[in-house]
């Protein structure tokens, strides 16, 4: 067996046979994708603009791998009820959780409202004019564009955080102006 191997004097080297002579993460990832991931007609590449946890969530949702009550029961895990704990109006599947549930419908409506708001205010901006007064006036607003549906304890906390931030910023600017002898 050894006699069939031809030896030469050149230096020993490693070779990588997947996609070229040298190792690249891309070639390894393509090989893993091709071997293990089911081809469902869309890319498994992560979108680098959005957070990893969102990528992973979307990837799991697209493959119906979310731990919904229906999926848990299919895997033999005992659950008290298959019904959605939020609306109690249907089986808690991935589709129900993301699209059919009343809470999901409300969230989608709110997202559309925000997108409409953003689209309608693309040309808006802050206009800074020269003023004769030296008063420092600040504004803060964190009421979710005045939406009455989202009023809750968490949004009240956001209001307080907004106030705390604006006070801190104002204090910093006032001290800077004092150092510059403008006040
Ligand atoms: Zn529901």
Automatic annotation (TrEMBL):
Pfam families given in the database record: zf-RVT
Designated name of the protein: Reverse transcriptase domain, reverse transcriptase zinc-binding domain protein
GO molecular function, one term: RNA-directed DNA polymerase activity
Source domain of life: Eukaryota
Domain Reverse transcriptase zinc-binding: 38-105
InterPro entries in alphabetical order: RVT-Znf (IPR026960)
Coiled-coil annotated residue ranges, if any: none
Organism: Tanacetum coccineum
Protein keywords: Nucleotidyltransferase, RNA-directed DNA polymerase, Transferase
Keyword Nucleotidyltransferase on entry: yes
